[in-house]
Amino acid sequence: MTPPLSYLEFHLVFTLPPIALLGWLAVRRDRAWWNREALSGFAILVALAVVYTTPWTNALIPEGVWWYGDGAVLATVWHTPVEEYLFFVLQTMLTAFWLFHLLDVAELPLRIPTSHRVVGVLAGAAICLAGWLLLGTTSTFYLGAILVWAGPVLAIQWGFGLTYLVRVRRRLFLAIAVPTLYLWLADWVAISLGIWMISETHTIGVGVAGLPLEEMLFFLVTNVFIVQGIVLYVWVLDRLDAPVTVQHVQRVVDRLLSRSTDG
């Protein structure tokens, strides 16, 4: 059955308009973080999203985890429709442009406790391990694939900047929650219209109003990747550009004096 909207028309209705609106507002609003640092972080994340997601998607589609309605896509590259590759870029744009309205940099040095880094890496590794175990059962295959795919990225981000992410957690939550809720709605519409279908065999059968839990988790973790990636990137650039203040010099002098006294 041919869906009433093609995948490309889905983008024209659900992804491009909010991107255009958020981008226009970011350019016009003085408080929006629309500068070289934020945009360069966005460009890097787009490249990473395409490179990292492409093999994962092309591994799951042949397994029958999801498929597309008759005539819904223009063409495929490997096993993935060109509109899906476009989605990698457009979702990053949507979430990043929303984040630019909220982005700010907290005062925190790049040097964070080693214990925090260890906790972050172990948390990401635990997610990956849980996903690996779930891959062995057909009904949990999609859930496991998401967790295996998400774990390494989360381990890197949390291992590098868990302390900072906790410091800005309120802003982080808002930056992630709004685009995630919107994409859940858009995904639900696409599934309802038959633009793409999710396998009942490869999912656990839990969802909200017909939207599978796995789809909800996918859009959540991808938005976490995007928001945390840009937030950490901007934090690093801000710290590298931070001027040396009298307080910084005084702290260094105090440490040197303390060591010489102890010696």
Automatic annotation (TrEMBL):
One of its GO terms (biological process) is carotenoid biosynthetic process. One of its GO terms (cellular component) is membrane. Its main location: membrane. The keyword DNA-binding does not apply. It is a multi-pass membrane protein. One of its GO terms (molecular function) is lycopene beta cyclase activity. Residues 21-97, 154-223 form the Lycopene cyclase domain. InterPro entries: Lycopene_cyclase_dom. It comes from the Archaea. The chain crosses the membrane at residues 6-27, 39-57, 85-106, 118-135, 141-165, 172-196, 216-237. Keywords: Carotenoid biosynthesis, Isomerase, Membrane, Transmembrane, Transmembrane helix. The keyword Nucleotidyltransferase does not apply. Pathway: Carotenoid biosynthesis. It is found in: Membrane. This is Lycopene cyclase. It comes from Natronococcus pandeyae.
